[in-house]
Amino acid sequence: MEISPSSTCLQYQFRSVSLPSRLQHPQNTKVEAELTKLKIWQSSLDSSAVPTSGETIRTGLVGLAELYNCVEELINSPITQQALVQHRKGALVEEALEGSIGLLDSCNVARDLSLMMKQNVQDLQSVLRRKGGDLTIEKNISGYNSSKKKAKKESAKCLRALKKMENQIQSRSLSDVMNYSLSNLIRVLREVSLVTISVLESYFLFLSMPDSRTRPGGWSLIKKLVVTRPRGHKIVNEFGSVDVALQSLHGCIRNNIPNIDVQITRRRLDALADSMEGLETGLDCLYRKLIRNRVSLLNILAP
Questions:
Q1: Biological process GO terms, please (predicted)?
Q2: Which positions ≥6 away from 136 have C-beta within 8 Å?
């Protein structure tokens, strides 16, 4: 998995839960290899001074898909299945099932928001291609801004839920678990959950890109998504780039400036549309992997 240089420092840090050093299953080696790639991806976000791009997040989603393929192999290995059946009524097994629900919920919200923003971007692209009247353009800009506001609100809720989930995972212990295969699986699932949370957080932060009208003091969790260069020029991701273009276009319309050039706005919308398309595909794939893992667990635990 290639690591995109287009990334940013995020407030949310991925904290590793170390896997056992003595690996018994070949599947563990595969899981660790994919986890290592995603940790490198995470480190690139934490160390970079450039806002996270959609392509960077898509890279993380692709990595998660590969990781969950390896987890599926681990879950379906005979020794893991035996441990799950023996402890099907235990708290650790219940933890694994509950954790999958939380990730599914967050991923589903991410998919819905992606679809909503994609539709609004397409509406704007359509009206600009048709060279619709100023009132039509204004209406579509207003619709886009309303959807963006809703996306920010929903993203903030999901970020809080994911942070709570992360804290719960970090506070749990496996010191009293005697069955190695079970403790190994739970360690893996916790580690996988943490890195999944990290990727989903980066997506919700990407959606929460503040526009130029936002006061710096009110950026809260998302203030690191805008980086200011020494000369005062702001570096923004695809959403921020579109926001700037739309505000300029809206200002020209309001001031009755003739012969408005919409090419810059169209190019930026095209770039955002491409990003949203890739993210939607990645989120759909992740959602299917999460469901498959949960179904596998439930099938093994079924009496």
A1: root development; shoot system development
A2: 127
- 293 close to 71: Cβ distance less than 8 angstroms: yes
Query: How many angstroms separate the CA atoms of 211 and 247, rounded?
Result: 9
**Count of all residues that appear for the chain in the document:** 303
Q: What band does 226 get if pLDDT is binned at 50, 70 and 90?
A: very low
Please state whether beta strands 227-228 and 234-235 pair in parallel, antiparallel, or not at all (unpaired): antiparallel
Evaluate if residue 230 carries a pLDDT over 80: no
As a whole number of angstroms, the distance between CA 72 and CA 296 comes to 8
Q: What is the mean pLDDT of residues 63-83?
A: 93
Decide if 155 contacts 209 (C-beta within 8 A). Answer: no
Q: What pLDDT sits at residue 10?
A: 39
14: exposed, middle or buried (C-beta count within 10 Å: 0-12, 13-18, 19+)?
Answer: buried
Q: What is the DSSP letter of 22?
A: S
Structure tokens at 253: 């319309």
- Long-range CB pairs of 28-36 (<8 Å, 24+ gap) are 28/74, 28/184, 28/188, 30/70, 30/73, 31/67, 31/70, 31/71, 31/74, 31/188, 31/192, 33/70, 34/63, 34/66, 34/67, 34/70, 35/67, 35/191, 35/192, 35/195
- What local confidence, expressed as pLDDT, does residue 9 receive? 35
Residue 20 has pLDDT above 60, yes or no: no
- State yes or no: pLDDT of 137 exceeds 90: no
